[in-house]
Amino acid sequence: MWRPGVRSLSSITKFDTKKFVVSLKNGGFTPEQAETAVNIVNRAVNDGIYAITKNLVNKETLSSTAYQQKVDFAKLKGELQTMDKSEFNNLKKEQENLRTDLTNLKNRLKEEITRSQAGVRLDLNLEKGRIREESSIHESKIEDTYTRIDEEIANMQMQIKSVKTQVMQWLIGVSSGTFALLLAFVRFFG
Where is the protein localized (predicted)? Predict the structure, then answer.
């Protein structure tokens, strides 16, 4: 059976069907049998070639698909770069906000310490004045006041050290994370 678009066996393979018919006749086939055998072989080969060519892709389709994939990859690369830039900018903004918060916290702590010290000094001056007036009665109260003041200052210093340590740990963590992201960005796009 002949199919459109499929060439005959002899045009594809340079197969000489007439020579094959002669060989079959010399082998004892009748002319009709030889022609029939050649037609059957020709049809079988043509059907096989047709089945194979049906599954092949033409050059234009392949070029079009390759071009579309290049376009898709370029688009994806651009989107990834945009996402990385926006994430980096967000991290920078967050880091700046944290620095501002830390500066504000530091200023508030200084104010609290100054206020506490002023209050303590005022209390000390008042206590000293009372001691002068009633020295024998209030000596024990003065000792209690000094002890309480020292404990509060020690507690404040411990709290300040604790806050400083936490702030430094947090800053190191943020800096390390930012540096790691920067290295990943450089490695990914470098």
Answer: Membrane; Mitochondrion
